[in-house]
């Protein structure tokens, strides 16, 4: 680990968090597919750079963010973007509460404001799913200013020293739109590829230690075929995702592999022909 990262880790792991905040500290477990990827991301974050993770569904972007939360023992606020995302979902909203018998208006902090004030990690998933007009409100907190003016209260919020931003995108997916240059240029960007075969096997065995070797072998063989068809454009990326393979292996401990793969992988695909292809590939490995 880089010296700067070690220093930041020592500082952040000594912070005292409330019981509520401790529930937001995630579990680790990310396996880096390339030697320097994880360490380089940590260096960028230690320099207070917002990080953008680019990769296909199931490549481990969320697990990577969770592993950073675990390493720094830092609570993580999550935002799952969609076309319905608005400023209130990011910053918070006003509500009426009763105090001393009187109704008063209070502002309830959203994930962005909470992360800024408390020095949490802000994880923005599928940021390119959000409407382009929603995101400019974040520009000033993503550059050197690290501050924002809350349009609902007028409060100027300066980010806590430990405030960290990690965003993730699935490029080229239906429903996504290209990030505009003004937003993209505020990030340091990292491509997150799928794991190599042996790395994937280690992840599966660690995630489902009760699985027999023969079942792991079968899931690995199916995974190899799924990855080839994904690379050829015949299957969606999620068909080869680590998340789906772990789900399939967990099910396969308690039911036949072909049914496990159908439920965990094939039935999640929208295209009927893709579902058929997954089941046909599975059948070639199940005896």
CATH homologous superfamily assignment of the largest domain: P-loop containing nucleotide triphosphate hydrolases
* CATH architectural name of the largest domain: 3-Layer(aba) Sandwich
Q: In one word, what is the shape?
A: globular
Say what the CATH topology of the largest domain is.
Rossmann fold
- How do the strands line up in the largest sheet? 2-5-8-1-9
Give the class-level CATH name of the largest domain: Alpha Beta
**Largest sheet geometry:** 5 strands, parallel
Structure classification: alpha/beta
Total domains, how many?
2
DSSP strand tally: 9
Average pLDDT, rounded to a whole number, is: 92
Number of helices: 13
- State the helical fraction: 40-55%
**Any idea what the radius of gyration is?**
21 Å
Query: In sequence order, what are the helices and strands, one letter per element?
Result: HHHEHEHEEHEHEEEHEHHHHH
Distance between the termini: 46 Å
Please give the oligomerization state of what you see.
single chain
Task: Report on this structure.
This protein has helices at 3-13, 19-22, 37-46, 61-72, 87-91, 111-118, 139-142, 181-184, 197-207, 213-231, 242-252, 257-264, 272-283; strands spanning 51-54, 76-80, 92-99, 102-109, 121-125, 147-149, 156-158, 164-169, 188-191. It is α/β, with parallel strands linked by helices and 287 residues long. The protein folds into two domains: 3-191, P-loop containing nucleotide triphosphate hydrolases (Rossmann fold); 197-283. The strands form three sheets. The protein has a five-stranded parallel beta sheet. A two-stranded antiparallel sheet has the order 3-4. A two-stranded antiparallel sheet has the order 6-7. Strand 6 (147-149) and strand 7 (156-158) form a beta hairpin. The mean pLDDT is 92.
């Amino acid at each position: 680990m880089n010296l700067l990262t070690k220093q930041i880790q020592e500082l952040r792991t000594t912070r005292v968090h409330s019981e509520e905040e401790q529930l937001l500290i995630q579990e680790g477990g990310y396996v880096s597919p390339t030697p320097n990827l994880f360490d380089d991301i940590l260096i960028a974050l230690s320099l207070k750079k917002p990080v953008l993770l680019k990769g296909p569904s199931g490549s481990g972007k969320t697990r990577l963010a969770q592993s950073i939360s675990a390493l720094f023992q830092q609570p993580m606020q999550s935002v799952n973007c969609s076309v319905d995302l608005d400023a209130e979902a990011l910053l918070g909203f006003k509500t009426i509460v009763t105090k001393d018998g009187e109704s008063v208006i209070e502002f309830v902090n959203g994930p962005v404001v909470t992360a800024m004030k408390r020095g949490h990690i802000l994880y923005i998933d599928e940021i390119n799913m959000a409407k382009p007009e929603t995101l400019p409100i974040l520009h000033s907190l993503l550059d050197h200013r690290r501050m924002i003016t809350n349009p609902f209260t007028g409060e100027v919020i300066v980010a806590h020293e430990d405030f960290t931003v990690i965003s993730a995108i699935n490029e080229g997916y239906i429903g996504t739109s290209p990030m505009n240059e003004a937003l993209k240029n505020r990030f340091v960007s990292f491509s997150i590829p799928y794991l190599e075969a042996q790395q994937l096997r280690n992840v599966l065995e660690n995630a489902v230690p009760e699985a027999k070797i023969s079942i792991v072998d079968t899931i690995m063989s199916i995974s190899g075929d799924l990855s080839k068809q994904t690379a050829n454009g015949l299957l969606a990326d999620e068909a080869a995702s680590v998340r789906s393979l772990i789900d399939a292996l967990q099910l396969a401990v308690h039911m036949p592999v072909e049914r496990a793969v159908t439920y965990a992988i094939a039935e999640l695909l929208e295209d009927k022909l893709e579902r058929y292809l997954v089941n046909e590939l599975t059948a070639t490995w199940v005896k």
